[in-house]
Amino acid sequence: MRWRSFLSSGAAHLVALLLTALYLVPLLYMVMVSLVPTGESTLELPGRLAWENYGAAIAASDFPLFFVNSTLVAVVASVAQILLSCMAGYALAKLPVRHGNTIMLLLIALLVLPPEIVMVPLFVISNKFPLLGGNDLFGSGGMGMLDTYAGLILPHLASALAIFLMRQFYKDLPDELGQAARVDGAGEWRIFLRIYTP
Q1: Are residues 195 and 181 in contact, defined by beta-carbon separation less than 8 angstroms?
Q2: How many C-beta atoms surround the C-beta of residue 40 within 10 A?
Q3: C-alpha separations of 97 from 65, 103, 133 in Å
Q4: CA distance 24 to 77
Q5: pLDDT one-digit tens code per residue, 45-84
Q6: What's the confidence (pLDDT) of residue 57?
Q7: 63-94 and 160-172 helices cross at what angle (nearest 10)?
Q8: SS3 106
Q9: Are 156 and 77 a contacting pair, CB within 8 Å?
Q10: How confident is the model at residue 23 (pLDDT cuts 50, 70, 90)?
């Protein structure tokens, strides 16, 4: 029995090691290629590491601006998505929402849509958004939300997967916690923020 357990754990470790290599080899190759001096072959190990390649790449573009933009969009979109997903998940799990099951079915249906399908419609919506970026009431005449932080952040505020996961999380928590807090005089916001979410 011990031998069989050793073999199964060894096989699991071997599979984990192979998967780790599968993910790390392309990353290490990318780093190696980035350090190859100009004119040398990228198929063999470099004779010396050309760290100046990174300096040249940063100097050739407005890298600090790109970094700040990416960081700002990622942080704001992530925090907002977590907050909105927590609120939506709590409402669908613990509050008497009309047609809550239908909403959940629609969210699950959204999970099967690949992001590439919604990319063009999101671009059109960002471009034709009314009363922003010079657009009139009907969404024409300007740039809409193109080249703005709002155009990058707003499409990522709601995520069907995040709402689904948060709903499942809140659904697993006992209803008695909220009922006891209501008896003590707590409102829904306090129950959400102080009882269920922490």
Answers
A1: yes
A2: 13
A3: 44, 9, 36
A4: 28
A5: 777 888 898 888 888 888 889 999 999 999 999 999 999 9
A6: 84
A7: 40
A8: helix
A9: yes
A10: very high
Of 139-153, 154-168, 181-195, where does mean pLDDT reach its minimum?
139-153
Name every residue whose Cβ is closer than 8 Å to that of residue 46 and which is 6 or more positions away in sequence. 32, 35, 36, 37, 40
Q: Which of 56, 31, 57 shows the shortest CA–CA distance to 42?
A: 31
Instruction: Quote the pTM value.
Output: 0.72
Task: Inform me whether the pLDDT recorded for 90 exceeds 80.
Answer: yes
Whole-number Å distance between alpha carbons of 158 and 77: 9
Whether the Cβ atoms of residue 95 and residue 188 lie closer than 8 Å to each other: yes
Closest CA to 196 of 184, 183, 107, 176: 176
Task: Tell me the CA distances in angstroms from 46 to 38, 43, 51, 81, one per residue in order.
Answer: 10, 9, 12, 43
Dig out the tokens for 7 from the structure. 């073999």
Distance CA 40, CA 142 (A): 48
Query: How far is it, in rounded angstroms, from Cα 95 to Cα 169?
Result: 14
Give the per-residue pLDDT at 5.
67
Cβ distance 188 to 108 under 8 Å?
no
